[in-house]
Write a structure and sequence with these properties.
This protein is an alpha+beta fold. It has 11 helices and 19 strands. Helix content is about 30%, strand content about 30%. The strands form 3 sheets. Strands 3, 4, 5, 11, 12, 13, 14, 15, 16 and 19 form a 10-stranded mixed β-sheet that branches. It has a 6-stranded mixed β-sheet with strand order 6-2-1-10-18-17. It has a 3-stranded antiparallel β-sheet with strand order 7-8-9. The chain binds flavin-adenine dinucleotide.
């Protein structure tokens, strides 16, 4: 039984069945939901307020799953290992011809964003997950907080945790001078069912993640569970992530202006990218990519674009309001640590509450410096990696420094 389950069991048997403090969470994605299930398991009265009007599980592409991202499913209170990912055993670099130039036996786990989201969503109480509930502000007292929602509701709580992502409303209120900075490049992302791929490409992808280092660019391709959860080779989904430079001199703004004329800042959804950009990307794929990687990219009719940003905050705690996950630190995805960082913030808050016997203010005081330090080092590391690949052009196939990890390569 895990540490949190032991504490909950002890507490439930202590004779006191009064719920602990009221915790309000703004933002119901990976960071918000991980915090919600962990604090709920500690006995807190947790409610999640999510801006979206429908549950988010139909969205998202592939993610690398570091141990902390699915820690709730491997050692949470579910009582059994309930992984939400598949494992690949080889980290392989190809050249333009498709020849293997570096292959490392290494075990990493992969999933779909929506698979992880759905599992967390299912683990939380549906009547405490409120869709259509956009945070627009809050008031604080020394011992509590009042959350303001767009529809006029006021929700009283003892602690407000803002996990509202890179464009955080809370951060805009608390730290208006801090904003994400565009890194100079985007990730073209595509997902393709394995059924649509040739036998040769399926064989190349069966147990390997494929990387290709390109001129001031790189691409990686890996399998993830299918939308129905199948991890059987041949039935899975394949995900590609191609980092390409678009200077902030008009090229980026042009790319992010969709077929509907709307200028988007962070993500250009499938079907919205203007055809001339899709065709330019496909032509470049034909000219530069290894056959297996090229096939995956070209098989997807509606790719999406995720712009890459850096973000770093000087503080995460503001009285009884705190910010975590992407709202606080925006990491370039090169060590696959965005989800892991959000989950690490959630686990660290859980641990801090236990450490100080559930004194909220003391827990926040313990939590903040640790997470600031982690966030700063992760931002610095991922910025340096991105600059090596996209600016200096000095990324080297097989460099162990590229191994995924939040704290260090491989971890
Ligand atoms: C729909 C979706 C799909 C994603 N797909 C991928 C993917 O495929 N691959 C990948 O690497 N990363 C993906 N991400 C990003 C990834 O989840 C984050 O980078 C990382 O997990 C950190 O999560 P987070 O919870 O801190 O922030 P986010 O995941 O960005 O979540 C923020 C949440 O807060 C909500 N929100 C925003 N403002 C408000 C407000 N004012 N009031 C209430 N709610 C608010 C948003 O709707 C969102 O659900 C996706 C995020 C979302 C929301």
């Amino acid at each position: 039984m895990s540490c949190s389950s032991v504490r909950l069991t002890q507490w439930l048997h202590s004779g006191s069945h009064r719920l602990r403090s009221r915790v309000l969470i703004a933002g119901g994605s990976i960071g918000g939901l991980t915090t919600a299930v962990l604090l709920r398991d500690l006995g807190y009265d947790v409610q999640v307020f999510e801006r979206a009007s429908v549950a988010l599980q139909e969205r998202g592409t592939g993610i690398v799953v570091l141990p902390i991202t699915e820690r709730y499913f491997t050692e949470g209170n579910l009582g059994h290992d309930n992984r939400v990912s598949l494992e690949l055993s080889d980290w392989t670099y190809l050249d333009r011809s498709g020849a293997v130039i570096s292959a490392d036996p290494d075990h990493f786990r992969f999933s779909g964003w929506s698979t992880v989201y759905r599992a967390l969503h299912d683990a939380f109480d549906p009547d405490r997950y409120h869709l259509n509930s956009e945070m627009v502000g809050f008031d604080q007292r020394p011992d509590g907080v009042s959350l303001h929602l767009a529809d006029g509701r006021r929700i009283e709580g003892d602690l407000l945790i803002c996990a509202d992502g890179l464009s955080s409303t809370a951060r805009g209120i608390l730290l208006p001078e801090v904003a994400p900075t565009y890194a100079g490049y985007v990730a073209w992302r595509a997902i393709t069912p394995e059924q649509d791929l040739s036998q040769a490409t399926l064989a190349a992808l069966s147990d390997a993640m494929l990387y290709q280092v390109l001129d001031h660019s790189h691409i990686l391709v890996y399998a993830i569970p299918s939308p129905s959860g199948s991890i059987t080779p041949g039935e899975r989904t394949v995900n590609s992530v191609w980092y390409r430079n678009y200077p902030d001199d008009g090229a980026f703004a042009d790319l992010m202006t969709g077929i509907d004329g709307e200028r988007r800042s962070g993500t250009m959804p499938p079907g919205m990218i203007r055809p001339e950009f899709v065709e330019e990307m496909r032509q470049s794929a034909r000219e530069t990519l290894a056959p297996a990687i090229r096939e995956v990219v070209l098989a997807c009719e509606e790719p999406l674009i995720q712009a890459i940003f850096d973000l770093e905050v000087p503080r995460m705690v503001f009285g009884r309001v705190c910010i975590l996950g992407d709202a606080a630190f925006g990491l370039r995805p090169h060590v696959a640590a965005g989800q892991a960082k959000a989950c690490a913030d959630a686990w660290a808050l859980h641990d801090a509450l236990v450490e100080v016997d559930h004194d909220l203010d003391a827990a926040l005081a313990v939590w903040e410096p640790r997470q600031l330090q982690l966030g700063r080092s992760a931002v610095a590391k991922t910025r340096a990696m991105g600059d090596r690949s996209q600016v200096a052009g000095t990324m080297v196939a097989g460099d162990p420094a590229w191994k995924f990890g939040l704290w260090e390569p491989g971890n």
